[in-house]
Design a protein that fits this description.
62% of the residues lie in helices and 4% in strands. By secondary structure, it is mainly alpha-helical. The chain has one domain. The chain has a two-stranded antiparallel sheet with strand order 1-2.
Length: 214
């Protein structure tokens, strides 16, 4: 799952008590931010193996820190504590932590078995990447349904909302249909982190035009 990870961020951002949408976009992909940094540092590992699933050629064979349930819970807790320290708002902290944890739960739906509970086997994943007719409409429906829900509640500027929607769609189409890299390089991490950064900045910009209360 790619842009679908931002669906919980958009849904939660519609609430008055939630952190800002930019912060929530970081929360939604915090686990992958960490993964691609650790990949760059050689701590976690992946390789491209076309055919490992019908939709995604990434063989995510070693990511015990970021993509274990225990690791995801640790990231969620740290993020929640940071939100609480910044806002002294317990509800905002809980919501932010829940968005971080949602990443692992959504990955469980689509990944072939490569997730763990605490870094060691068994490896988990329901494998919807092998069923494009299910995964593709599910991801688009979640993402744009959540964007509509956020827009209905917070009324961001139409131009900013439209650019957000166009960017999400363009990135997801590139993810599905773009060229397959022959090997993992430093550029793999740089490209992913740049995409996450661009979407996060666009979400923050969109949120600046939204109503202060929902």
């Amino acid at each position: 799952m790619f842009v679908g990870h931002w669906a919980p961020a958009l849904a939660v951002a519609s609430r008055r008590s939630a952190p800002g949408v930019g912060a929530l976009f970081i929360a939604a992909q915090l686990i992958d931010w960490a993964f691609f940094i650790l990949l760059l540092l050689g701590v976690e590992h992946m390789r491209f193996s076309p055919g490992i699933s019908a939709m995604n050629p990434m063989d995510l064979y070693h990511m015990p820190i970021t993509h274990s349930l225990f690791g995801a819970a640790c990231f969620a807790t740290v993020f929640a504590v940071m939100v609480w320290a910044a806002t002294r708002d317990r509800i905002a902290a809980i919501l932010g932590g829940a968005v971080v944890l949602s990443h692992w739960l959504l990955d469980l739906l689509v990944h072939v078995p490569d997730l763990t509970l605490a870094g060691d086997p068994p490896k988990l994943g329901l494998g919807l990447w092998n069923y494009p007719a299910i995964e593709m409409p599910l991801e688009l429906g979640m993402t744009f349904g959540a964007l509509w829900f956020y827009a209905s509640a917070r009324r961001p500027a139409p131009l900013r909302l439209g650019l957000m929607a166009a960017l999400l769609l363009a990135l997801q189409l590139f993810n599905w249909f773009g060229p397959i890299k022959p090997e993992v390089t430093a550029g793999t991490s740089v490209l992913a982190l740049a995409a996450y950064g661009l979407v996060t900045l666009t979400a923050w910009w969109m949120g600046k035009s939204a109503r202060a209360s929902a």
